[in-house]
Amino acid sequence: MAKSDSGRYVVERAEAQRSATLIQVAALLGALACVALAACLQDPINRQRKELQLVLQSDIYKELPPEYAWISAFGGALRGLAVHYLWYRAEELKQEGKYYESQQLARWICTLQPRFAEVWIFQAWNMSYNISVATHTPQERWQWVYNGIRLLRDEGIPNNDRVVALYRQLTWTWFHKVGDRIDEFHNFYKRRWAATMENLLGPPPVGVSDERMLDWFRPVAAAPVQLEEVIAGRPKVAELVTALAALGIDVHAETRNDRLFHPLEERFFEPYARFLAEKNLARLRAEPAKVSEGQRRLNEFFAASAGEEFDTLVA
């Protein structure tokens, strides 16, 4: 009787071990199948995340200074608390009249919350409306109005190009602060923007019909956005790009910068405007005007590069 029970126990134990082994093998095969399926789905998921703008294409945290870089290591509620501290500090600096320090903190707040559209909207509005009216000269006013515009145009919208509210705020700021007459310095804003556009596009045609004016703008509106597209259509443009690089001008300059104007505004378009002005005045001068060595080299480049390729590159 005891031997029979012992034998049955051994058999049942062996069957249980065999069953457990089969379950383990099945679980392992199932896990491997899930891993393989996840690997197959990873690429489509990543593509969809990019299409839905759930990931950033750039290392946004590299802009943070060392004293605030630790915030980027936080997640969830901890990051929220850290950002709240930055908000409090930025408002405190603004109340103290330290507007540039407050602006820098505002940029870091946007860097830490790049997908939160209301952050971009508030910080841009704060610069264009609150800080601008706290200054006293038209030059200062325009700088802060334009800082708010640039924050939305050059950073907020590129990071959230499907968020309609950002476009609405940008157009409203242009209309209300620059286009309308609410701000007492609106005429100064219009003159400054007109001067910037004239540097970029040249003087507008005078006394022409609306259709002729549209024809004047059409080549600029139809110009390719990417430099690679320009070179693909006109390969000789690549030679102009190389020549400009030799003169210290990088036409690939990023729009994200701490200055009021795009880097090419100062390094390329302003020298080009001076070249055009001097070209018109040269026949009235008894002797050539004295210019810097850098301007002289650029003048030689502009004079030698006149043609459709150069016009295409400028557009």
Explain the layout of strands and helices.
Layout: H1 2-51, H2 66-69, H3 76-95, H4 99-112, H5 117-133, H6 138-159, H7 164-179, H8 186-201, H9 210-221, H10 227-233, H11 237-246, H12 263-281, H13 293-304, H14 308-314
The general outline is elongated
Beta-strand fraction estimate: under 5%
What Rg is obtained from the alpha carbons, in whole angstroms?
31 Å
Q: Helix/strand-derived class?
A: mainly alpha
> How far do the termini sit from each other?
101 Å
- Give the SSE order as H and E letters: HHHHHHHHHHHHHH
* CATH class call of the largest domain: Mainly Alpha
Work out the count of structural domains.
2
The poorly predicted ranges are 254-263
What is the third-level CATH name, the topology of the largest domain?
Serine Threonine Protein Phosphatase 5, Tetratricopeptide repeat
Overall strand count: 0
Sheet with most strands = none
Number of helices: 14
Say what oligomer this is. single chain
Average the pLDDT over all residues and give the rounded result: 76
CATH structural architecture of the largest domain: Alpha Horseshoe
Percentage of residues in helical conformation: over 70%
Give a short overview:
The protein has 315 residues and is mainly alpha-helical. The chain has 14 helices and no strands.
Explained architecture:
This protein is an all-alpha fold and 315 residues long. The chain has two domains: 74-200, Alpha Horseshoe (Serine Threonine Protein Phosphatase 5, Tetratricopeptide repeat), CATH 1.25.40; 208-314, no CATH class. The protein contains 14 helices and no strands. It has helices spanning 2-51, 66-69, 76-95, 99-112, 117-133, 138-159, 164-179, 186-201, 210-221, 227-233, 237-246, 263-281, 293-304, 308-314. 15% of the residues are buried. The model is unreliable at 254-263 (pLDDT under 50).
